Amino acid sequence: MGAIKRISVEGFKSIRELKDFELNNLNVIVGANGAGKSNFIQIFKMLLAMSQGAFQNYIKMNGGADAFPFHGLKETPAISVEFEFSSNSAYSDGSNFYRFTMSSTVSEEMLLTEERKYKDFNWKTYGSPSLESRLAEQKNESSWDGNWNGVGYFVYDAISQWMVYHFHDTGENAPMRRSEIVEDCKKLREDGSNIAPFLLYLRENETKCYEKIRNAIQLVIPFFDDFSLDVIQMGEARKVKLTWKQKGTDYPMQPYHFSDGSIRFICLATALLQPNPPTTIVIDEPELGLHPEAIQILGEMISSAAKKTQVIVATQSPLLIDQFALKDIIVARRQDGASTFERLKEEDYTTWLDDYSVGELWTKNVIEGGTVHE
User: Fold this and answer.
1) Are residues 336 and 202 in the same domain?
2) What is the pLDDT of residues 323-345, one digit of tens each?
3) Which of 158, 191, 223, 226 is 20 to 30 A (C-alpha) from 23?
């Protein structure tokens, strides 16, 4: 359970309407600035916050309730989103559906109405409208009541195991450069703050996976030998940070010796090559700050990860686009003031592909998706 088959959106930020849009295992979204890529990604961030009981906090931290409706509350009094999830388990074989409506209150909070269903059964409500999502309340739901009551568990399980990675903060005080407790190693956090304990766990328990990550890093950082991951006792806590070894010297290298691009690639490699990935991996502009050679390897890792789980990536890099087939690419465009999304078809570009790469077709605007002046 977990892969998203289809998504429908009405009235969310720049997305006026997106109806039954299919998502595959690999989804690479390209588009000009302001086309709507980040707004699409934000839906997944918001759903993850909802599964954690942090919906209102997410709304406040992202501009408040009035920042979400398409063209404002006057034009869009309510936002609706619907997901269809694939399901293939001992308890459920078919599609599970989840949808919610969010509307602004007088106090500028968002009120949620949630429903779920299994296959073609009737929709079942989560209860009366509420300020926080009831997704987490369904994590123990598993009974059959003639309408597959247990679908609530499968929906929660899928969404709660998403991960929207964001490794843009690589400054000198970034969490990934600081020490973290050894016990924080169950999953790689969205900002890479526990990258050191997570890698330490992989080195001790998932050797083959750890070596794949190490080898990928060495391709991009040739002078890199291995991680030291020194554990230090700090009061009652045992902490570890991203210490490492450079080839040809025994000088103890520290996290601050990594460039921004290097430490970002380390986090990306770890996220994409981890042995037990999230049900869906979402990354916005992973190419930022990376050398062209690193971007090529990044493309290979994204394709590899998509064989194990669902991957959604938003990018503006022609070089990264070059690493994928046309069927993997979704173009975000602005049309009449709203975002549209279209998956490319190879048969539409057969003649062009004889002479140009996918990235070149994007650069030349043969794959239309450049800036639209309104």
Assistant:
1) no
2) 999 999 999 999 989 999 999 99
3) 191
